[in-house]
Amino acid sequence: MASTDKLAAKYLSLFLKSMNHVSLKKFTYHIRIKGRKRHRVQKLLFGTINYLLTIDTALRTASKKANVNLSNLSTMELNLLRILTYRILFNNYELSQIRTKTNNSKLINKIISHINFPTGDTDIDRLALRYSFPRWMIKNLINRIDNNTLELLLDSLNKRPTKWIAININRISPDEAIESLNKEGFNAEQDEEFKDIAIKISKFSKPLTKTNLYKKGLAIPVSKASIGVVKALKITSGEIILDACAAPGVKTILMNFYLNDSGKIYAIDISPNRLKRMRTLLKLFNINNVILTNADARKIKLEKSFDKVLIDAPCTSSGMIGLSPDIKWRLKPEMINYFSGVQLSIVENIIQQLVNMENKVQIVYSTCSIFPQENEDLVKRILNAYEDVVSIDGKSLYGIGLADYYGKFGKRFYPFIHHTIGLFLTSIIV
Ligand SMILES: C[S@@+](CC[C@H](N)C(=O)[O-])C[C@H]1O[C@@H](n2cnc3c(N)ncnc32)[C@H](O)[C@@H]1O
To answer: Are residues 276 and 313 in the same domain?
Structure first.
């Protein structure tokens, strides 16, 4: 055990140094350990990063009580302390199980003996420490959703969401896909809601990208909420679709499944790198009805109309904290303003052009953000600004997710109910 703690501390030190440039999810691909030890180190890393605020607060209090200055410890020792504190607070680790061998073992053990779960004086502090979220995030949400929902949301974002795989409904049936996955050692079952396309995975034998289904382009790993977004478009064969923020193309591929290779998808993205990844993915799935364009959806000029538009907007990704808990610490409050500005520009640019087209067009807007500013508030602003020409299309959202925070602007997938990422979606008609 002790060596696992030390290894985890080593990788924690490396990760914290690079946290501004790389996500924890990506970082873990580079962990050079094999087998079960790798799994244990990965779990410790995720747990410690997830609960960093609570851990650091507990450590500061304990070091004061132990009369030890944390700055006398090396980075490696401090991170070992973080790992041990995580184990004590969240893994029921007993003090007697701890054997540290470093130059400062005595100091470390002294601090550890004073570790207690920290509590806060105000509601915001209490929630911030209990669930280990930045105070500004709690402040943002506390007056927007009721306390019970907020606590369930914070708690569920501390857990890994369930994984799903979406099948190419034209080339394989759910039963065939389940049989293939189960043969490869997975525990796969048909999703209860999205029966035609979604397979829920509860036991893994390897990464889903190593399965026969994925390698043959018959199925793609997804979050269930992404399927909900595409379902809301109610795609029928032959439609012409604009995918305004498309890369790396997961939803484009789902749309292609529903189009059965007919029609056309005009896929735009501002990032050449992400489009490169998308091209590879489209090739794997042998998809030929997608036209890729590297462009800015805030400025793009539409030369013709479409049947449907998907705006899967860039956002804070705060609904994905369960997949990569470092998002909690990388996000800054001003990023909500930044993203809601970009989101508004994209939606307005597209609406202003579609208004002048002859046909009515359905726009599905979605983000994987838990903040209302990027979602409900944004829809409210759009409805106010374009009240004569834009309306919410509740019919297309029927049966998808649950009511949004205010029950009138769209739908949400809640991780504590749907066990997927946190996601908002709405459908509007222009
Ligand atoms: C949430 S991701 C899209 C995910 C994608 N729809 C999928 O299902 O795989 C948002 C995308 O918007 C792109 N983006 C950001 N700003 C943009 C802009 N102004 N115009 C077009 N794309 C933009 C990002 O590069 C990113 O790929």
So the answer is: yes
Q: Is the residue at 117 inside a domain?
A: no
pLDDT digits (tens, 9 = 90+) for 221-268: 999 999 999 999 999 999 999 999 999 999 999 999 999 999 999 999
Residues 69 and 83 in one domain: yes
What are all long-range contacts of 136-145, with beta carbons under 8 Å and residues at least 24 apart? 136/333, 137/318, 137/328, 137/331, 140/333, 140/336, 140/371, 140/373, 141/370, 141/371, 144/372, 144/405, 145/405
Mean pLDDT computed over every residue of the chain: 95
- Produce one character per residue of 396-409: b if its CB has 16 or more CB atoms within 10 Å, e if not: bbeebbeebbeeeb
Q: State in Å: Cα 274 to ligand 1 middle.
A: 9
The last residue of one of the domains, among 171, 195, 222, is 222
Into how many domains does the chain fold? 4
Q: Are residues 174 and 253 in the same domain?
A: no
Residue to mutate, 164, 245, 344, ligand 1, most ligand atoms under 8 Å from C-beta: 245
Residue 2's pLDDT is 53
Shared-domain flag, residues 99 and 146 = no
Are 321 and 296 contained in the same domain?
A: yes
Q: Are residues 108 and 80 in the same domain?
A: yes
pTM above 0.70, yes or no: yes
Q: Is the CB of 247 under 6 A from ligand 1?
A: yes
| Domain harbouring 212, CATH code | 3.30.70.1170
**pLDDT of 94:** 74
Residue 99: pLDDT over 70:
no
How far apart, in Å, do the first and last CA atoms of the chain sit?
Answer: 60
Give the list of residues 6+ apart from residue 178 with CB closer than 8 angstroms, or none: 188, 189, 190, 199
Share of the chain above pLDDT 70, in %: 97
User: Is residue 257 located within the same domain as residue 406?
Assistant: yes
How do residues 318-341 score in pLDDT, each as one tens digit? Answer: 999 999 999 999 999 999 999 999
What's the pLDDT score for residue 1? 45
Q: What confidence tier does 100 reach under pLDDT thresholds 50, 70, 90?
A: low
The pLDDT value given to residue 31: 87
Sign of CA dihedral 73, 76, 81, 86: positive
> What is the residue with the minimal CA distance to atom 2 of ligand 1?
314
Domain limits for position 194? 163-222
Decide: 246 in ligand 1 pocket, CB within 6 A: yes
CATH of the domain at 92: 1.10.940
Q: Do 253 and 363 reside in the same domain of the chain? A: yes
CA of 24 relative to ligand 1 center, distance in Å: 20
